[in-house]
TrEMBL record:
Keywords: ATP-binding, Nucleotide-binding
Name the UniProt record assigns to this protein: MoxR family ATPase
A Pfam family that the UniProt record links to this protein: AAA_lid_2
Comp. bias regions, Gly residues: 323-332
ATPase AAA-3 domain span: 47-176
InterPro entries per the UniProt record, alphabetical: ATPase_AAA-3, CbbQ/NirQ/NorQ/GpvN, ChlI/MoxR_AAA_lid, P-loop_NTPase
Organism, scientific name: Streptomyces doudnae
Stored Gene3D superfamilies: Magnesium chelatase subunit I, C-Terminal domain, P-loop containing nucleotide triphosphate hydrolases
Highest taxon, organism lineage: Bacteria
Length: 341
């Protein structure tokens, strides 16, 4: 049963998320679905990859999200000459103490903005692997914990653009979701000229939430209930990517976990204490597509990973809501519903 405290925590979550959303949308006009996905990833303890052509507001989105929360923020400008130690830190010999002193790198912040991450070498990109998965950094045999909350918001240009390196599969798999900002509508672009024409709105952006608030919201999201049939639905979607003929690399078990966490965060943002199949459906493309590798034949046929995920969504049976409750005040689900498109 849902308690009064549970409802109160969900109310606090939606109110805080609404403040953050409004703050970010004051900078990024006309992209509410992109802002919502960024909030979903933040509350699901994930990392966000923003991929698009230059000039559409990728870095602006990352900076707006970071400035809307009162927490430590560091920015890493990825370049071909960036070293792994620039990210993780390095031990330096202290002449006075006659001992090595650890100098933390840019990864030691609560929100890390990685600008144009695919312009650094794969070796440098790999410096993020441990921190993104285990939220710690190991230097010279010594392990250092990263602060909480911890989120990497990375931007990248399309791989076909000059001076870029493709992200390794292990690196892409650690990003919970990928989003493309896209070009604004003519109305949003006209509004942008009015808002950004003089002074950047980032300069007047004030925090509307504290890092402690985000930690509490994350704990609330962890308590969102997911029925067995909804979990099975997520597993079926991910499993289908591993046997699809157009894919030579399917999604990993980590992808299943990320999909479920994102669905719980999406449910909490809607004020629900339980996740629905709709939450899984709406996030499947963003969470799964960037992890998949199409076959050479699929690339020749111009079949994208996004199209494959959409096809899998259409073919996979969705749990059907039944009468009664599945526990914790949640609706029950069967296995074979009519597909809603």
């Amino acid at each position: 049963m849902t308690t009064y405290d549970d409802r109160a925590r969900l109310t606090d979550l939606t109110a805080t998320a609404e403040r953050v959303r409004g703050s970010v949308e004051g900078v990024i006009e006309g992209k509410p679905e992109v802002v919502r996905l960024a909030l979903t990833v933040l509350l699901a303890e994930g990392h966000l990859l923003i991929e698009d052509v230059p000039g559409v507001g990728k870095t602006m989105l990352a900076k707006a999200l970071a400035r809307s929360i009162d927490c430590s923020v560091r920015r890493i400008q990825f370049t071909p000459d960036l070293l792994p130690s620039d990210i993780t830190g390095v031990s330096i010999w202290d002449q006075q103490r006659r001992d090595f002193e650890f100098k933390p790198g840019a990864i030691f912040a609560q929100i890390v903005i990685g600008d144009e991450i695919n312009r650094a070498s794969p070796k440098t990109q790999s410096a993020l692997l441990e921190s993104m998965e285990e939220r710690q950094v190991t230097i010279d045999g010594q392990t250092y914990e990263l602060p909480s909350p911890f989120m990497v918001v990375a931007t990248q240009n399309p791989v076909e653009m000059e001076g870029t390196y493709p992200l390794p599969e292990a690196q892409r798999d650690r990003f919970m979701a990928r989003v493309s900002v896209g070009y604004p509508s003519p109305e949003a672009e006209l509004q942008m000229l009015d808002v950004h024409g003089g002074v950047s709105p980032l300069e007047d952006l004030q925090p509307v939430a504290h890092a402690h608030d985000v930690v509490k919201l994350v704990e609330t999201v962890r308590g969102v209930h997911v029925a067995e049939t909804v979990r099975r639905y997520a597993v079926d979607l991910v499993s289908a990517t591993r046997t699809h003929p157009d894919l030579r690399l399917g999604a990993s078990p980590r992808a299943t976990l990320h999909l479920l966490r994102a669905a719980k965060a999406s449910a909490a943002l809607d004020g629900r204490e339980y996740a629905l199949p709709d939450d899984v459906q709406s996030l499947a493309v963003a969470v799964l597509a960037h992890r998949l590798l199409p076959t050479a034949q699929a690339q020749l046929n111009r079949r994208s990973a996004e199209q494959v995920v959409q096809e899998i969504l259409q073919r996979t049976p969705v749990p059907q809501q039944q009468g009664g409750s599945g526990g914790h005040g949640t609706p029950g689900y069967g296995q074979q519903p009519p597909r809603r498109l």
